[in-house]
Amino acid sequence: MTEITVPPGGWFSHLFAISADPLHTIAAWAEGADGAVRIPWPVPGQRSMLITDPALIEEILVRKHKHFRKDWFTRRLSNVMGDSLVTAEGETWRRQRKLAQPAFHSRQIDGYARVMVEEAEACVAPLADGQALDLNAEMMALTLRVVCRALFGARMTEDIHGVAEAIEAYMRWYLGVGGSGVPLPDWVPSAANREKDAAIALLDDVLARLIAARRAEPADDLLSTLIAAVDEDGGGLSDRELRDEAATLMLAGHETTAQALTMGFFLLGTHPDALARLHAEVDALEGPLGLHSLAGLDYTTRVFKETMRLYPPVWGIGREALEDVTIGDLPLHRGDQIWLAQWAMHRSPRFFDDPLAFRPERWTPEMEAALPRFAYFPFGGGPRVCIGQRFAMMEGALLLAALARQARFEPQSPEPPELLPSVTIRPVGGLPVTVRRRT
Ligand code: HEM
After folding, report:
1. Is a pLDDT exceeding 60 seen at residue 179?
2. What is the largest CA-CA distance in the chain?
């Protein structure tokens, strides 16, 4: 029998708590709940449920995924992503996933190891000993360069600054929507909407040029693979679909990894033993890093996994029930809002010993085999599992290693930064660090 808890208080106090401090509120609701939490909700006839049983999460994401669609916050992204992999539903999504999948086959992704190492080395080389910097901004710029080179080849270099600014401007608008107050409709000519429209127009312009160039002259990049993809009817992606996929991959593929790297370096900077183990591992690797190095980066990979446990870049997944459906023995109604929160599950003592401790060594093959499938799901699951998972895992290990070979980053405060949850969780005010070069 699924246990349903209801946190005390009315919908107003819950709405206020979740707007003011989503991470603590979600963790507090989930604490001790071993099934589902029914959150008092202001919309008549619509309920809101936080699911805390991994078996029920599996049912929603895997076995009964057809009964759900993405939630309102994800759907809002369609003004920049269009009707693309992240935002599309049903047949439109299935066709796009099929066409995009070849671009993410391991053979293709493995080819980007060199780009990842090159970009990481170019990022760390100019940093001076004692220099202060915002590591979060640095990681955002680095992962944007990596994903853009993988997507568009070398051509992106000249547009990268404009694109980075446009994405930041868009995210400011999105954060305003997700974080506070009542969002204004897109057509209201408010300053925020105008800034967002200008950012989307800049992205449209850059992407149109890149797509035209790649149609004329294919290269060894993800965009060319997407252009070459054909479905069973012999049709491929239109220019509009290519634009939407490219914008989606740029957005989904850089901020997530950047947040994991930022928090990874924060945890290493505040856990000297773990840092020493990671240094011993990367220093033992000879010659330039690349795909071949991954086999020797076992501890580094565990650091990345443990970071995504404590600080899952995607902290929650939202779904809306499309019809009445029963999950386990829990009846859900059409329109119910469903929350699956990595943030709460990954930090639960039900699944992890000493859950708030940073212990990369816990990630043994035995521990992974014994872990319930959806107690840890940084990349989601089921048909809509992250298409970039392999790319991200490889990027995480290679970037941590390539940067740690040359420098360590001393956080200016040992206290975890305040986090702002949006699509990802971002440190408020960045992550100020002092660079220490390694000899
Ligand atoms: C540490 C890095 C990453 C994390 C934690 C992450 C997490 C996720 C999660 C949780 C989802 C599922 C969302 C849902 O079910 O509603 C997702 C979907 C997606 N991710 Fe990632 N992601 C990462 C990196 C990447 C990269 C590098 C790319 C592309 C280069 C990417 C592209 C996508 C796309 C296109 C989807 C939508 C897939 C679909 O619905 O078919 N992600 N990601």
Report:
1. no
2. 64
Range of 153's domain? Answer: 100-312+380-439
> Average pLDDT, stretch 382-398?
97
Interval between CA 249 and ligand 1 midpoint (Å): 9
Query: Is residue 68 domain-shared with residue 191, that is, in the same domain?
Result: no
Which of 325, 351, 377 is at the close of a domain? Answer: 377
Total count of domains within the chain = 2
| Tokens coding 334 | 């059409």
Is the CB of 264 within 6 Å of ligand 1?
Answer: no
Q: For residue 378, report the distance from its CA to the centre of ligand 1, in Å.
A: 9
**Residue 11 sits in the same domain as residue 72:** yes
- pLDDT for the residue numbered 181: 47
pLDDT class of 177 with cuts at 50, 70, 90: low
What is the Å distance from ligand 1's center to 252 Cα? 6
Decide if pLDDT at 183 tops 80.
no
Q: Is residue 95 part of a domain?
A: no
Given the CA of residue 61, which atom of ligand 1 is nearest to it?
15
10 Å CB burial of residue 377 (0-12, 13-18, 19+) is buried
Q: Is 252 in the pocket of ligand 1 (CB under 6 A)?
A: yes
Residues 29 and 159 in one domain: no
Instruction: Indicate the helix (H) or strand (E) that contains 193.
Output: helix 191-216
Model's pTM, two decimal places? Answer: 0.94
Substitution candidate for ligand 1 out of 256, 259, 426 with most atoms within 8 A of CB = 256
